[in-house]
Design goal:
67% of the residues lie in helices and 0% in strands. It is an all-alpha fold and 209 residues long. The chain is globular. The longest helix is centred in the last third of the chain and has 18 residues. α4 packs antiparallel against α5, α4 runs parallel beside α6 and α5 runs antiparallel to α6.
């Protein structure tokens, strides 16, 4: 996040075109919004509009609707699907609505948008919450082939293995009960890394007793 802020702070002096600057600011706005930094998000959004008054802001406002659990309004902004970014937000709507993997695969079967690593990660999470572990693994493996060792993917992979181990004990429990599924950009802080390492060590003890 600090690196992104530093990059955007120097953007006015760059030789990029106005449209390129607008896209950078817009990406910053989305990142800030996903991190709960509303003031920074609105600031970058205004700068994006200054650089390109015609920039499409639909994914930003759709994401705001998703954060407030208004997936119906978000869908209106995202359809028809014209990009991976819009597709991924529709998948986030499906997670919020607790759709099954079968429903989502059927709904987006006709979609011709090429899946990126985030698409595959979200599909893996939907399959996980549907207790379809083989499908979840298929999607997470596809995501790894596109973006190896991303923290969000590693956590997704760990969730699949953990819940598959505990499925017989908790067959109907919500598998996605924390905000991680919404974090498209996740870089652990030192404390978060320590907590994750502790969780790993405790799970390792539990599974090898």
């Amino acid at each position: 996040w600090k690196q992104l802020q530093a990059f955007l702070a120097e953007l006015p002096m760059s030789m990029c075109s106005h449209k390129q600057k607008a896209e950078f600011y817009y990406s910053g706005a989305l990142w800030a919004l996903s991190d709960g930094k509303q003031c920074e998000a609105e600031q970058y959004l205004r700068q994006a509009q200054i650089e390109d008054p015609e920039i499409d802001l639909s994914t930003y406002y759709a994401y705001e609707y998703i954060q407030s659990d208004n997936t119906e309004a978000a869908r209106e902004l995202l359809l028809p699907v014209g990009s991976a970014a819009k597709l991924n937000l529709l998948l986030l709507c499906a997670i919020k609505e607790k759709r099954t993997i079968a429903y989502v695969q059927d709904e987006f079967y006709q979609c011709k948008i090429e899946a990126d690593s985030e698409t595959n990660r979200l599909m893996a999470l939907i399959a996980l919450n549907s207790n379809d572990y083989s499908t979840a693994r298929k999607y997470v493996e596809q995501a790894f082939s596109q973006f190896r060792d991303a923290p969000g993917l590693l956590i997704c992979d760990a969730l699949i293995s953990s819940w598959e181990a505990m499925n017989s004990v908790y067959p109907t429990c919500d598998r996605l009960g924390f905000i991680c599924c919404e974090k498209r950009h996740f870089s652990p802080t030192t404390l978060q890394r320590e907590n994750l390492e502790h969780a790993y060590l405790q799970l390792e003890k539990a599974y090898h007793q």
